[in-house]
Amino acid sequence: MILDIYGTIIFLHVVSAVLSIGPLFILMPIIKRLRGVETEIEKVYLSIINVIIRAVMHAGHVLVFTGVLLIILGPWPWYTSWVVMTLAVMLLSAVFLAKGFTFVLRRFHDPKQDKNAILNSLNRTSWIYIGLMLIMLWLMVQKPMFW
């Protein structure tokens, strides 16, 4: 019974990991198409970006919750080096997601701001966040021992 629950939690954890990184790759072509479009089309693209960011954020919540359950139920203690490093990168990415995307998207409607610079920042933020997520994925799969 416990193994079935543990296996289900692992499955949910993997699915939430995919959902917390996969949609970000959709942002790249949207950001590219957002350059120089009319205001109405711009609103549509921005709402798609907001949906993607919300989906990534909620998938991240499931990822954290299932990760905590896996640590509680699994064989690894909290002080294992790969767990500590994963938590550190996760906290960094959570702050980065909140500041990097939300702040940038809020500035987009300010007429004083350069939209191309904002889109460049949004593109860079997306790639950095993807990089952080890939580091976490590597830590969770490889489980390296640093100490």
UniProtKB/TrEMBL annotation:
Source domain of life: Bacteria
Keywords of this entry: Membrane, Transmembrane, Transmembrane helix
TM region positions: 6-31, 51-76, 82-105, 126-141
Protein name: Membrane protein
Source organism of this protein record: Sporosarcina limicola
